[in-house]
Amino acid sequence: MYAFNFERAADAKTAVARLKADPAAKFLGGGQSLLAAMKLRLASPSTLVDVARIPGMAEIRVEGNEIVIGAAARHADVEANAEVRQRIPALATLAGGIGDRQVRAMGTIGGALANDDPAADYPAGVLGLGATVVTDRRSIAADDFFKGLYETVLEADELITAVRFPIPDQAAYAKFANPASRFALVGVLVARTGNAVRVAVTGAADSVFRCQPLEQALSGDFTAPAARGVKVDAGRLNSDLHGSAQYRAHLIPVLAARAVEAALKG
Question: What region holds the FAD-binding PCMH-type domain (predicted)?
């Protein structure tokens, strides 16, 4: 590891000001992605600005028909939170399947979203549940947040402060995990609120995406057989040593069906 400066921000305003002053600085949440990138020399920030200990940034609370999760909330905190488990159990399940125990104890939701790994779980949760990403300067709808491979609409000095999750009528997450990393070879979150169904897929393409054929099928018939009957085009999907695009296309409706079954069981 090379030499760099480390600073602990007292509040969001101070953290953002530090990055405005030094474009080579980076925010540090749990460090589960950034520190690994630094060890591999894929990132070389001049300064790490720790935002994980900003007061209130790890809070999880209910506001009306939403659960608000602070950006510094650890994956293990989301998994264990009683309100999340009661109101959006799919999100607790998703958080509990991220990485290993060390990753869940250190990694944060804000860091995971800012990094936007194409095989990460939280992007499926945010997009599938129609959440809103709140930053130090604006609120961003999930449909507008993710742009591509490791790319979001965040500006270089923009800090995620919280994520607002609407509470659905039913939702569940199903994942086919890489046994070594626990990243999603394919992960599918299905959520239904009233007659509207959202289906978000991670791990299968360069970035998380909504699967319109599944949404259309499940809006008319919210059952596992309806999901299994959908054919997904493999044209935009990834092929790598873990699985072909055709294999991922096969997995998407299979996992969607499992998610629907879990959602219906409550």
Answer: 1-170
